[in-house]
Every structure is written in C-alpha cells, then in structure tokens.
Amino acid sequence: MLDNYFNKLKEFSLFSQAEKDNLTKYITIKKVQKGNYILNSGEVCNHIYFLNQGFARQYYYKNGKEVTEWFAGKNEFCFSIESYFKDSPSKLLIETIEDSEVIYLHKEGLLGLSKSNIEIGQLAIKMFAKSLVLSQQRMESILFQSAKDRYVNLLERQPEIIQKVPLSYIASFLGITQETLSRIRAKLN
C-alpha cells in the first residue's frame, strides 16, 4: 500500500529501506469519504497529506464565501503551509471531492528525522521547495494572466479538474465569477 507513496517520495530524495522504516513509524493511512475533511478550519496542520486515491479541494472563507486555493488529485500532496510551520489553527480547509485514501505523514517524523538524517532532510527541503514554487506560480497566474489564459492553462495542466469539480469551484480557483467562466467556456467551444 505504501509502495506508491514511497515511489513518489523518491522523486524528491533517494533513501534506504531503514529510512523508509523510520518514516513509516510516522505514517497513518485513512479512508476519507467524499465531503469529509482531511483538515478542518481551526485544526493545527501536523501532517503532510498524500492522496493515494481520490481528489480534494483546499479552500478558505473570505467574507462568508468559499475561495478555492488548490486541488489535489491522486498521487499529490497537500497541507496548510502556514498552520504547519506556525503551529497555528488553520484557516484552510481540505475537503474530499470523492472518496479518498489519504496517507498522513506526521510533522514530527519528517522534521524530527530530518535533523539526524541527510536524505530525509533533503526530502523535506525539496517537498517544501516544490510547494513554494507551485504557490508562487499560482500567485503569478492570478496577477499576470488573463482569466481566459488561466482557464486554458488549467485545461492543459490539470484537465481532470474539469470533470471532477463543480464550475463554481473552478471559477473560485481562477479568481473569477461563474458567469465569466461560462462566457470563457462558450467562446472556447
């Protein structure tokens, strides 16, 4: 069950069987039904989550409205960066869009082991670096791309999102209204 997970981690850092065994001590696997939360508002994010199966949406509330920040699909990671590093209650919610199997890697394991093990330290650095790069790319797309370009990029990079989530979530993720998204879609078809 963890083979897929460790294969994904190898993209960040190579590590031995002993290092895998050490990390495994800090791993929990949970089935999360559609519509339930991997992380709820107000909880402290003490894990990095990996979707072994399923699909999830990260969002928060702004002025009483849901604002979608990110989507995570099969073989992808997600977590609340601010809550994880500040040990503060999360404003971000991570909700499953479909029945999911989620691997929870506890912060104590990753950060604790990284202090004494260079390979796990490299794993942590590269995972966090990738998260920061993706966050910056998202921010740049909102700031510098047109709504149409953001939608086209989404179609090219993550086409599965279009089939899995309601248009209201996609519009929120793109930073536009659902009406604007409908107009963009009509022009492209």
What does this structure look like?
InterPro entries: cNMP-bd_dom (IPR000595), cNMP-bd_dom_sf (IPR018490), Env_Response_Regulators (IPR050397), RmlC-like_jellyroll (IPR014710). Pfam families: cNMP_binding. One of its GO terms (molecular function) is DNA-binding transcription factor activity. It comes from Leeuwenhoekiella marinoflava. Helices cover 48% and strands 26% of the residues. The protein starts with a helix and ends with a helix. A hairpin with a 2-residue loop joins β3 and β4 (65-72). The longest helix has 27 residues, at 118-144. Strands 1, 2, 3, 4, 5 and 6 form a six-stranded antiparallel beta sheet that branches. By secondary structure, it is α+β, with helices and mostly antiparallel strands. The chain has one domain (1-144): Sandwich (Jelly Rolls). α4 packs across α5 (118-144) and α8 packs across α9.
Furnish the topology, listing elements before pairings.
Blueprint: H1 3-9, H2 17-24, E1 27-32, E2 37-39, E3 47-62, E4 65-72, E5 76-78, H3 81-86, E6 93-106, H4 107-114, H5 118-144, H6 147-157, H7 160-164, H8 167-174, H9 178-188
Antiparallel strand pairs: 1-6, 2-6, 3-4, 3-5, 3-6
